[in-house]
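Module 6 notes. Inverse folding takes a fixed backbone as the condition and produces residue identities as the prediction. Think of it as a translation problem where the source language is geometry and the target language is the twenty amino acids. Below is one complete input and output pair. Work through it position by position during the lab.
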């Protein structure tokens, strides 16, 4: 009966802080750290989606900056220009409903892959039909989501020069006190923002504490930031997590989890996010998508936590999808920060009121 919780929540939030926080039970994220008994993930490789109209998604994907890596009836593998043979697998939905079928993380070694096969519910299969081949473990979570682990995948050879569909000649940047670019010009043309890699994704989760515990007990996810509710300082509502790689720096967040409001019954994907080169790429890519008639959700702007320049779009099935550039990096010496939920952008358009919702999934 979620409506009862909604009413209770509204009632409690009207009480003085000392009283409401006494009544509301603690919902705090416990201290989380990595240790060698956990499965050590190295990076995020790709995501799986099912779309009602694969051709339409394919048209969007090309305007978004993905490159087709392999196509078979009902399935397209899209890649970026990084080492992953693909970053996005789009399949034809058999019942015309769009679905997110989970992220796939690359494990650090064969030993880590073996360790993951021993976790309860691990289903192992081969990826022989996919570019780069390899092996995959899938976990079906009780909340209807999926989590995959991959190993033995052949990596792409990286181009020596960073490819671009928009930049002819760029940099270095001239600043007021330091102007290193002399006699050379910045030259760009219209085109899509080419994607480098899959950067992160996030869920909104009703069974927040149990799901978060599963990910952080079994894998090297560590919170970079924890945010608590503005009315209840004893209720953590969101965490941005990175992969702990020890001394090595990794992206500020690779996965985030948000505690669902009481009316949300089922876990949903908030968005997936893909790295592009820089600010010019973001703006030229934004214009390209707009000119092609796709739907902008929020951007271009600059996030606070993670610092990325962001730009969110709706794909033809209604999933939110983000271009990002210039994100923060953290390592084992970066402490977890805890703060109240605050503004999500430093600059940019006002955040849409329904940004936290599932959105119009076709
Ligand atoms: Fe994001």
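Target side of the pair, the amino acids:
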């Amino acid at each position: 009966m979620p409506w009862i919780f909604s009413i209770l929540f509204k009632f409690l939030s009207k009480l003085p802080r000392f009283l409401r926080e006494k009544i509301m039970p603690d919902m705090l994220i416990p201290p989380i750290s990595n240790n060698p008994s956990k499965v050590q993930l190295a990076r995020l490789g790709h995501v799986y989606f099912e779309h009602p109209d694969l051709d339409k998604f394919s048209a969007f994907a090309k305007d978004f900056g993905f490159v087709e890596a392999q196509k078979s009836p009902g399935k397209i593998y899209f890649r970026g220009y990084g080492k992953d043979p693909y970053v996005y697998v789009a399949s034809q939905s058999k019942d015309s409903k769009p679905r997110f079928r989970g992220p796939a993380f690359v494990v650090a070694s064969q030993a880590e892959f073996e360790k993951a096969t021993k976790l309860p519910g691990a289903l192992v299969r081969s990826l022989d039909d996919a570019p780069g081949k390899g092996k995959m473990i899938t976990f079906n979570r009780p909340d209807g989501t999926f989590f995959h682990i991959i190993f033995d995948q052949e990596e792409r050879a990286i181009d020596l020069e960073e490819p671009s569909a928009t930049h002819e000649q760029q940099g270095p940047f001239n600043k007021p006190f330091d102007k290193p670019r002399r006699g050379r010009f910045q030259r760009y043309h219209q085109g899509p923002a080419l994607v480098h890699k899959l950067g992160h994704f996030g869920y909104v989760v009703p069974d927040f504490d149990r799901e978060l515990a599963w990910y952080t007990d079994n894998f090297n996810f560590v919170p970079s930031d924890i945010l608590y509710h503005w009315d209840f300082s004893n209720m953590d509502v969101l965490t941005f997590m990175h992969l702990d790689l020890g001394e090595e720096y990794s992206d500020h967040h690779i996965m985030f989890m948000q505690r669902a409001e009481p009316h949300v019954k089922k876990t949903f994907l908030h968005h997936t996010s893909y790295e592009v080169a820089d600010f010019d790429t973001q703006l030229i890519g934004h214009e390209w998508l707009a000119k092609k008639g796709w739907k902008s959700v929020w951007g271009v702007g600059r996030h606070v936590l993670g610092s990325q320049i962001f730009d969110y779009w709706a794909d033809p099935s209604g999933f939110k999808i983000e271009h990002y550039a210039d994100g923060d990096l953290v390592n084992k010496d970066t402490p977890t920060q805890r703060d109240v939920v605050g503004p999500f952008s430093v600059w940019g358009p006002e955040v849409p009121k329904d940004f936290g919702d599932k959105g119009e999934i076709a």
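Reference fact for the lab report: The pocket of fe (ii) ion is lined by residues 200, 271, 273, 322 (CB under 6 Å).
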